[in-house]
Every structure is written in structure tokens, then in C-alpha cells.
Design a protein that fits this description.
The complex is a heterotrimer of chains A (146), B (606) and C (366). Chain A is an all-alpha fold and 146 residues long. Chain A has one domain. Helix content of chain A is 59%, strand content 3%. In chain A, strand 1 and strand 2 form a beta hairpin. In chain A, helix 1 packs across helix 4 and helix 3 packs across helix 4. Chain A starts with a helix and ends in a 25-residue tail after the last helix. Chain B is an alpha+beta fold and 606 residues long. The chains are: A mainly alpha (146), B alpha+beta (606), C mainly alpha (366).
Chain lengths: 146, 606, 366
């Protein structure tokens, strides 16, 4: 089947929301979504990526930020399947660290390092960037009320 | 070979000690030249930003990661120390150091303008009065030819130059005294939430060891990073924090970038570029890309007659790190000479020049750091703020120093980043558990938010066998010597580590935390001692390679920081320290540099 | 009688606070769109102006507190709706939330333009001329000149102690301001009040007849050209140098500006321009929440809880990061490919959310 560029991006975005646990607004806010799809394409080949995106499309998720029990099961299956396990991990690592973990690991850009989701996930800021301001470390950690 | 002779003083090395000596001498009207091995770099802030981007984009975030490896002036890397295979410590044979062990020397330094202060943590503890007379008091280590009181006025100068933030009331322990009404330039850096909780959780509890008890007193650490200026400083004159070189609006306060080591993005943490810039504005000249290779001297009188150096071609160290450059050899002469190139480089240079003093290169010291880590009973918000804002001084001094090393306990604010590579390690762990999405996030948050670590900086004694030497077979790309390192730690230090490990266990119990310390036996720095697993890393406090003392038999320099055998040569830096005590050494060597500059100026004027 | 005059003074000083604040969102919005590494000079220049506007706002609060007034900051009317109309005696123009561009810099120059005729008035030269200020009738410089006259007159009539009868503990001290030129002055008498006003005016327009802002003379800091001239340097891509006159073009080093390497922000972004639930809307709402919380913290800071300034500044940093996220988000169906941006809109207290980053004291207030 033929997939348009914007469809690919759309599926990658939705899949990324599910894999990372971060909302669309957080992912778009990094400004890196297209760059990351390119990065993955470049290392794994578009066909390989399309296979993953196509299996994802077939699950037919209604709201990627709020999965139904059945959708969750299907996603779990997809993520743990032999053919997809390593690629989904690479996608998560890329989003979380800004680094491509391959034969030759590298950090995509300064921006990708600074936008690594792992820092938000641990309730901190990237080491060496997005500083929280003088004295803020003396306050209790940010409590998450969601 | 061309010779130039228009300077009163030539200094080798543009790190903190060279910068202070240069700035002080220029202040007194002397003409000063600095030879710097590192690449040409402007004082523009953009030039510093390039280091920051290099750090961001480096997959290995070690202390030297922002500062590119330069084949013309190579620097040691912590990654040059390998694992232990079949009980033998392995080393990267292509690393800058040629290490013979048996123990790994795990500390590094930076060969660039600004020196290792580019990546120091910024801890500015004074040494204890007892550290200066350890031999007399405890029959351990050595005595200094000067005492704490001799150094007091120079500590003040160093605290001003670096811009130290601390509250005097908290720092007067173990006999440390301050002049009446003295305050630090800036008020103490706010302690982390972790520090405050540890204080609360361990209140009233004690560490019990060998029949003695020690309090778990968490004390804020004096730091060379900008805080609120103290209006009472200098008898009410106040203090103006110094921001970034090339962009003074930035860095006027520590903003909590959590990257002091390896690079403060805004230069709220002091680095020697700040002093260097002042020196250059006073007329000091810096020759970058000039690697000193030999000190020339008169065999009979010992008098230094010049310094030979290799000036290499311009290249872009950020993009082209592989190839060595063409160079030309030159000689520079002056009335007085100062080696401020770093403990290891100073020793190497003197050995390369055929100096006869047997103490040169011996007594290599560091603070081996025993690391322990665990989880707090509740989220404390790891990875926020400076690397460390407090410590526990209880075991920095005591009669036990006869038998085992003293240590200072540093509380680490960045989770298990140092001992365990957090938070990437936890991320990989989550992935290996097949976690993804919101579950992965929750797993990371839950684990990392409670993380903290302790570092025990173990005092190491000066021993002749721990040494820097040279060997004709091992040279760098410019033909200069690579340092040969022989290094070990003794039972005295291992006993200190045992006490530290026990402290850690009792401490985690006292705060109802979870000790997660686990050492892997194949990692460099692992030892088994009296059935206890121990693991230590380097603190980056390389010292002792040209110690000060009373005569040429026991030392290289006298109390004036002048070489016993070469009266127009002064040495500065950690190499002069006969004992380490338990203080991070930068403040002390900065103070000694002020003292040295005063002596050099007097000598020039006499 | 003093009370009546004081009411007048309070009103003028509150106007001053609002005036100083009103330039901050436009400057910040432009600042956020600059790439630090591509345009380091412009980044630093605009940043330094923003920092000094914050200083001015703080100084105005210190003056108001010194005379026993009360700064009102967390208030729906405190934030102008952008584009805001700036009506000065000699010029009227709109100030909006616009990306960094030649045209936004031109607007900023309009705001900071020196009033060439401004006189430095000495206390004894003053004639009793207490009258209400309407900014529509004067330049910023003239406005402040009138406030100075009011102060001098009142002190002459009623004595320093009855004029400066505010609670000294409400003063923000110099330890809490950093990152820009100048210093916070604690105001407790006529001299310090007039000095504080001079800092405000000189940093903006330049010391009389000079391109420099007086920071070097007043505080021993590095020499710095005043806001108007800093913007001018960006506009003509050339620095001033020693000896240049305020009436002439700069003749110093060239500082090329890359006007293309700028986030292409939509003009005057508003949260409700973006569809409900869209990423741009979510982040715009988040920004507005942060901004409103920030104003709340400032309000408390200037009304007795000065320690909260540390948290207010922390909130500023968070605003910067959310603004950066907004500037990464393409506006759906925007034909020119514009990105979203920070709206700086007021959210009433009862609609404020307890966000993840929200600090405990504040959370308990809502």
C-alpha cells in the first residue's frame, strides 16, 4: 500500500505517544519528530519502518493518549513481537536520550540531547541545560498531580 | 631556533595557579608571559559555547568530554582505565598515561586555557590546621614547612579571587579559624532538599566505630560558584559576583544547571578564564599552542637560562582531533620562571630536563573516592542543583589518623550518575523489563527521584613509590614524554575505606533508606579487603609530585615555593602539597599561588 | 492634604510599574524566537534589555512601597492586551508580541526613544507643580520627570519622614536581582527615590546627551549603551564605540544579524486561536497558567514575602522552556507555516491549575 509522507508522520507521532508515555503536545514541543523519523528511516530503511507503522495502523487506536484495555493488549503484543521489539526500543531510546543507539551510537544534535524525555520523566532537567534557576534545588521535588 | 627576552617572568600553564601568579605579578607591574599548551581560544563567550555543544553531542559524558582531545597536548581520560581481568588491572595502552599499576590511577586533568578548573566541581574547603603537621600529631604523612596561620591571609585572597560562597559560622570546625569579622564574599549556596532531609532523618543518630561515636552533621560546603553577595564582605564593602567571561550578565548566580563537572554552561562556577582575562587586560601575554618541552639550566649554578617550547600550527580542535600538527621549536627567557602546568606536567617537564632532585615525580597522591549509593525513604528530587552542596566532616580529623586515613563525606545531588551512569542505566533497565509508555515513565520517576550517593574522599599518604616518571620509548605526537604512572594504595587508606563503608551502612540504616551499593569485581578500582568489597574512583586531585619541604633531600621546593636547586624557578600547584588532608585542593593551591606571586615579586625587586 | 497627594503618587507609581511591565512580554516574545548560537549578539542584547525592564519594575515597586503604597500585580488589568497601543505625546504606535525582526526592533526603538529635551532637575530648582500624570500627554522621560517633581515637592512641604513612611522590610534588595546591568536600590528617602528613577530612565534612554546608560558610573559595571542604542545596534548591525554621539549612527564593529534564523512565530498569539485540545492550545494554556502564577508570586514578593522571588524567578525559567516548546509547534492549516508562541494572557485565580511544577505555598493558596 502507498503511504503518504503526512500519514507516516501521523502514525509515527501516535506510535511515539504510546511508546514514550508523553502526550502529543510534549512530543511536538521538542521540535524533533520529523528529524527522528528521518533518523530511524536512515538507519533501518523506510520499508522496515513502514512495516512497523503498518502493524501499528492496523490496531486502529482511537485515542493514543488514552488506550482501551483491548488496544493496550494489542500494543503490548506489537511491542513484544520478535520483529518489532528491537526497533521499538530504539525509538524509545531515541526519544528519551536524543541518541541513536546503533553500531555507531551518536547524539543526533545538541537539541536532541536537551530534549531527551528521560529528564522530564525523572522530574528533572537535562544536565547542562534548561536550568531551573537559583536556589530551586533547595525546594521539595515537583509533585506530580496528574 | 629563535630566542625572545623581554619578560620578567615566564609561566608555563594557563590554569588557575598560572593565572593567579600572572595576574598578581602584572598587578605589581611585572611583565609576564604565559605559555599554554592548549589550542588558541578567544575570550568570547561563543568560543566557550563551542565546548558546551561538544559536551551535549558527546555520547560519553566524562569530565573531559567538552574539551576535545588534542594530539599536540594530549590529556588523560577516565575511560583509559580498563577493567580488571584475571585479577590484573587493565589500561588503555594508547591513552596519554602509560600506567603500570598495580592500582589504577583514575584521575584526569584538562590541557586547555583555563585548565582543569573548566571541569572542577568548585568545592573550596580550607585545609584543617592539623593537616599541616600530620607527622608531628599522628606520626603519619608529612609536615608542611608552613602552617594554617601562615596561609590564612592567602586563603582570604583565594576566596576573593574564586568568589567563594559560604557562611563562616558553619565552616569553623576542627580548629579552622577565621579573622575576626571575616565573611565569605557570598552567602552559602542554598543546600539541596536532599541535604535538608538527610539532616532531618539522621538527627540525633551517630556513627559508632571502634568504640567512638561521630555525629552525622550535614554541613554546607564552601563553593566557588556565585550566590547572593554578602553585603558585609570586606568590612561592608560588599562583593560583585563575576559572571561569564565575554558575557558578564550570564552566570551571576548558580542557576542549577547540574553540570558543574564537566562544564558550567553560564560560568556561574569559577574557572581560571576569569582570572586570565583580568591578567590579559593588565598586559599579560598568553602564547597558546606552545608546549614547553625542556627547561634549560646552568649545570653549575642551577640557574634556569630559558624554556624550550614547541609551537604548533593552528587547527580546529573541535573537528580535527586526529592529526598532529607541524611545529617549530623556540626558546623563551626571562628573569624568573614559574611552572604552573599541573602536578603531573610539572614533574614530567623537570624530569625531561634532567633535573637531579630525587623527589621529583614521587609522592603522587589523589583522593581515592569510595562511592556508595542508595535510595532515600521518599522522593528527594535527584538531578537538581550543583553536584554537591553539603558534606559530613565528622571523620576529617581524629587520633585515628595514626592508623587509618581520614575522609570527608560528600553528599551527591545527581542521583547515581557517577557510580552507576544514571539515569540512562535505569532507562535501559526499564526497557529490559519490557516497559514502555506511561509504565516506563512511572518506573523511572519512582526510582530516580529517591536516588542519592555518598563519596568518601580518602586521604592518601605521600609515598615515594607512587610516581610520575618518563621513558624514552613513550612519547606523544610532538615528541614530548607521556607520563609513566606507578600507583598503589596502602592498608592505611584501605582501613579508611573500611571505616567509610561501615559509615555508609550505618548511615543508610539511620535514615531508613535502602543501601543499593553493589560493586562489580571486574571494574577498575575494585578491591577485596578483610572480606569487605570496596570500590573507589579518582577525585581528580592529582598532587604531590614536587612537594615542599625544608631541604632538597625531603622536597623539591622550599616554603616560598622556590626550587631548592634552581633559585630563579618557582613551582605552583598541587605538586607542592606534602599532604592532601581531606580538602579538595584547589582553594589551597590558589592561596599558595598568591603567596608564591608575592615571593616572586619580592625576589624580582630585590 | 498629604494623603491626597500620596494617592496621586500611588497612582503614578502603579502606572510606572504597569508601564515597565508592559514592555516585558513583547521583548520576551521576540527574545524567545532568537537562536542564541546563530545570533549571539542580538540574543544577549535583547536579553539584557528584558532583564533591565524587570529591574525597572522592581525599582518602581520599591519606590511605591517606600511611600507606603501597595503594588498591585496579580490583576486582570495588569497585562495589556497585545497589540497594545502606546500613546506618547510625540508618537503613537502599536506594540505587539512579534518575532525578532527588523520591524519589531523598530517598534522597540520607538518605545525607548530618548526625549532629547529632557532636563535633569535639581531639588531646589523645583516649582510646586503637583498634577496628575496622563501618559497620553508626555513621553516616558517626561512622565518620570513629573514623578520626580512630585517627590521633591512633597518632601519639601511635609518632610522626608512623613513621605517615606513605608515598611522598610518590603524593600527588595540588590541580592535578589542579577543577570542584567544596574542594581536594585533600596528606597528610603528622597535621594534614593530620585536615584531609582534616574536608573530607570537612563538605562532606557541613556544618560542625558550620552549613548551610555550610566551603569559604569553608578555601579562600576561594564560600560553599556542604553536600550534605545542597543536596539539601534541590532537594527543597523553595527556596534557603537567610544565617542559616538546619540544623534549619529554607530561607527563601531560590524555585528551581522541573521534575520532568517528566527522562529517564525504567529503575531500576537492567543490561546483561543488554537483549537481546544490541540498541542498548541495545551501549551499556550500552560504558558498562560505559568505566567499568571508568576505574576501572583511577584505580587506576593512585593507585598511582604520577598523570599518568594527565588520561586518567581524559577517560574520565569519554566516559562522560557514552555515558550520554546510553543515555538516548535506548527499551527495546523497555517498557510505560511507559522509556529505558535507565548500569549501572555491572564488567567483568573479561580481558574488556575495545580500543575506538576507548582510550588507548595502557591498550591495551597488556590
Amino acid at each position: 500500500m502507498k503511504i503518504t509522507v503526512s500519514e507516516r508522520l501521523d502514525w509515527f507521532e501516535k506510535l511515539s505517544v504510546i511508546l514514550t508515555g508523553f502526550s502529543r503536545s510534549e512530543l511536538l514541543g521538542t521540535g524533533l519528530i520529523e528529524i527522528y523519523l528521518d533518523t530511524i528511516d536512515q538507519h533501518l530503511g523506510e520499508d522496515h519502518v513502514n512495516t512497523l507503522l503498518d502493524s501499528f495502523r492496523k490496531i486502529n487506536i482511537q485515542d493514543e493518549e488514552d488506550l482501551t484495555a483491548e488496544e493496550s493488549r494489542n500494543i503490548q503484543e506489537l511491542v513484544e513481537s520478535k520483529s518489532n521489539e528491537s526497533i521499538t526500543k530504539l525509538v524509545i531510546l531515541l526519544w528519551y536520550t536524543g541518541q541513536w543507539y546503533g553500531k555507531n551510537s551518536y547524539i543526533v544534535s545538541s537539541q536532541s540531547y536537551l530534549e531527551g524525555l528521560v529528564w522530564k520523566a525523572i522530574g528533572a532537567h537535562p544536565m547542562g541545560g534548561k536550568q531551573p534557576g537559583y536556589g530551586t534545588w533547595g525546594f521539595p521535588p515537583l509533585t506530580f498531580s496528574s | 631556533m629563535s630566542t625572545e627576552n623581554t619578560y620578567d617572568v615566564v609561566i608555563v600553564g594557563a590554569g588557575i595557579t598560572g593565572a593567579i601568579v600572572a595576574n598578581q605579578l602584572a598587578e605589581k607591574g611585572h611583565k609576564v608571559l604565559i605559555l599554554e599548551a592548549g589550542v588558541q581560544k578567544s575570550f568570547d563567550f561563543e568560543s566557550y559555547r563551542a565546548y558546551l555543544h561538544h559536551y551535549y553531542q558527546n555520547t560519553i559524558k566524562i569530565p573531559n568530554s567538552p574539551y576535545p582531545q588534542n594530539p599536540n597536548a594530549p590529556q588523560p581520560l577516565v575511560t583509559d582505565v580498563g577493567d580488571i581481568e584475571d585479577g590484573i588491572q587493565q589500561f588503555n595502552k594508547d591513552g596519554y598515561f602509560r600506567q603500570y599499576g598495580p592500582a589504577p590511577f583514575q584521575s584526569t586533568y584538562t590541557r586547555a586555557k583555563g585548565g582543569t578548573t573548566l571541569h572542577w566541581l568548585g568545592t573550596c574547603l580550607r585545609m584543617l590546621p592539623s593537616d599541616f603537621k600530620e607527622k608531628d600529631l599522628y606520626d603519619s604523612g608529612k609536615n608542611w614547612p608552613i602552617n594554617y596561620y601562615d596561609l590564612m591571609p592567602y586563603y582570604r585572597m583565594a576566596e576573593r579571587e574564586i568568589g567563594v560562597s559560604a557562611d563562616v559560622e558553619e565552616q569553623a570546625f576542627f580548629g579552622i579559624e577565621f579573622e575576626e569579622n571575616y565573611v565569605y564574599p557570598m552567602t552559602k549556596i542554598p543546600q539541596s532538599h536532599l541535604d535538608k532531609k538527610l539532616t532531618e532523618w539522621t538527627k540525633g543518630a551517630t556513627f559508632d566505630y571502634e568504640g567512638k561515636t561521630y555525629p552525622y552533621k550535614v554541613v554546607s560546603t564552601p563553593q566557588g560558584r556565585n550566590s547572593n553577595p554578602n553585603p558585609n564582605y570586606n568590612n561592608g564593602e560588599g562583593y560583585q559576583p563575576v559572571g561569564a567571561v565575554g558575557n558578564p550578565d550570564l552566570g551571576q548566580r548558580c542557576e542549577g544547571n547540574s553540570a558543574c563537572v564537566p562544564i558550567c554552561p553560564v560560568q556561574a562556577k569559577y574557572n581560571a578564564l576569569k582570572t586570565l582575562k583580568k591578567a590579559v587586560d593588565k598586559g599579560v601575554v598568553i602564547y597558546s599552542q606552545c608546549v614547553a618541552s625542556e627547561i634549560l639550566y646552568d649545570e653549575d649554578s642551577g640557574e634556569i637560562t630559558g624554556i624550550k617550547y614547541k609551537e604548533y600550527e593552528d587547527f580546529d580542535s573541535l573537528t580535527d582531533t586526529s592529526k598532529p600538527c607541524n611545529y617549530i621549536e623556540k626558546v623563551i627567557t626571562a628573569k624568573r620562571y614559574v611552572l604552573a602546568a599541573h602536578a603531573v606536567e610539572n614533574a614530567k617537564l623537570m624530569l625531561a630536563s634532567g633535573f637531579k632532585n630525587k623527589n621529583i615525580g614521587q609522592n603522587l597522591m589523589d583522593h581515592p573516592v569510595l562511592l556508595t549509593w542508595g535510595l532515600a525513604p521518599e522522593a528527594i528530587g535527584a538531578f537538581r542543583g550543583p553536584g554537591s552542596t553539603s558534606g559530613i566532616p565528622s571523620l576529617r580529623d581524629g587520633t585515628f589518623r595514626k592508623d587509618r586515613s581520614a575522609f570527608r563525606i560528600e553528599i551527591g545531588n545527581w542521583g547515581w550518575n557517577w557510580p552507576a551512569g544514571s539515569p540512562t542505566t535505569e532507562l535501559q533497565e526499564g526497557l529490559s523489563k519490557q516497559l514502555f509508555g506511561k509504565e516506563l515513565r512511572a518506573f523511572l520517576l519512582d526510582t530516580v527521584q529517591k536516588e542519592f550517593r555518598l563519596g568518601f574522599l580518602i586521604e592518601q599518604q605521600a609515598l615515594s613509590n607512587n610516581s610520575v616518571t618518563i621513558d624514552d620509548r613513550y612519547r606523544d605526537e610532538l615528541g614530548n614524554y607521556r607520563p609513566i604512572i606507578n600507583y598503589n594504595i596502602t592498608d592505611h587508606e584501605k582501613e579508611g575505606m573500611l571505616a567509610a563503608k561501615e559509615f555508609s551502612k550505618q548511615f543508610f540504616d539511620a535514615l531508613s533508606g535502602t543501601d543499593k551499593t553493589q560493586y562489580s569485581p571486574d571494574k577498575g578500582g575494585f578491591i577485596l579487603y578483610k572480606g569487605e568489597e570496596l570500590w573507589w574512583q579518582g577525585a581528580g586531585h592529582l598532587a604531590g609530585t614536587h612537594i615542599m619541604g625544608t631541604d632538597k633531600e625531603n622536597s623539591v621546593v622550599d616554603k616560598y615555593q622556590r626550587c631548592h636547586e634552581h633559585k630563579n624557578l618557582f613551582l605552583v600547584g598541587c605538586g607542592n602539597m606534602p599532604t592532601m588532608g581531606t580538602s579538595n585542593p584547589t582553594l589551597t593551591i590558589a592561596a599558595l599561588s598568591f603567596w608564591a606571586a608575592e615571593n616572586i615579586s619580592k625576589d624580582l625587586n630585590s | 492634604m498629604l494623603d491626597t497627594y500620596k494617592e496621586e503618587l500611588f497612582k503614578n507609581l502603579q502606572t510606572a510599574i504597569e508601564l515597565e511591565h508592559s514592555t516585558i512580554p513583547p521583548y520576551l516574545a521576540a527574545f524567545f524566537t532568537i537562536d542564541q548560537d546563530t545570533n549571539p549578539f542580538s540574543w544577549q542584547a535583547v536579553r539584557s534589555v528584558v532583564m533591565e525592564e524587570m529591574l525597572h519594575m522592581t525599582l518602581a515597586c520599591n519606590i511605591l512601597n517606600a511611600v507606603g503604597g501597595k503594588p498591585y500585580i496579580d490583576n486582570p488589568k495588569f497585562i495589556p492586551e497585545y497589540p497594545a497601543k502606546f500613546n506618547f505625546a510625540d508618537r503613537k504606535f502599536d506594540v505587539g508580541l512579534i518575532k525578532f525582526s527588523k520591524s519589531s526592533i523598530e517598534t522597540f526603538m520607538e518605545i525607548e526613544k530618548p526625549s532629547e529635551t529632557r532636563l535633569r532637575v535639581k531639588g531646589e530648582d523645583l516649582k510646586g507643580l503637583l498634577h496628575p500624570i496622563d501618559l497620553d500627554e508626555s513621553t516616558i522621560g517626561e512622565f518620570y520627570e513629573t514623578v520626580k517633581e512630585q517627590f521633591t515637592m512633597l518632601v519639601k512641604e511635609y518632610g522626608e519622614e512623613s513621605v517615606f513612611n513605608g515598611d522598610q522590610s518590603l524593600q527588595i534588595t540588590s541580592k535578589d536581582y542579577y543577570g542584567g546591568g544596574g542594581e536594585v536600590i533600596e528606597v528610603h528617602n528622597l535621594e534614593t527615590a530620585l536615584f531609582a528613577i534616574d536608573i530607570i530612565v537612563d538605562q532606557g534612554e541613556g544618560a542625558p546627551g550620552s549613548i551610555y546608560d550610566g551603569d559604569e558610573t553608578y555601579f562600576g559595571q561594564d560600560q553599556e549603551v542604553a536600550h534605545y542604542f542597543r536596539f539601534k545596534e541590532i537594527h543597523v548591525e553595527r556596534r557603537y564605540q567610544e565617542g559616538d554621539l546619540p544623534t549619529e549612527e554607530p561607527t563601531g564593529a560590524s555585528v551581522p544579524v541573521n534575520w532568517e534564523a528566527v522562529k517564525d512565530m504567529i503575531e500576537n498569539p492567543k490561546a483561543n486561536h488554537f483549537p481546544e485540545g490541540s498541542p498548541a492550545r495545551i501549551k499556550a494554556d500552560e504558558f498562560n497558567q505559568l505566567y499568571s502564577h508568576f505574576l501572583r508570586l511577584l505580587h506576593l514578593t512585593f507585598n511582604g514575602q520577598s523570599d518568594l522571588i527565588v520561586k518567581a524567578v524559577g517560574m520565569m525559567y519554566q516559562m522560557k522552556y514552555v515558550a520554546a516548546e510553543l515555538l516548535n509547534i506548527q499551527i495546523p492549516d497555517n498557510k505560511e507555516g507559522k509556529v505558535a508562541g507565548p500569549p501572555f494572557e491572564y488567567i483568573p485565580i479561580e481558574q488556575r491549575k495545580v500543575y506538576a511544577w507548582l510550588l507548595p505555598e502557591l498550591a495551597s493558596e488556590i
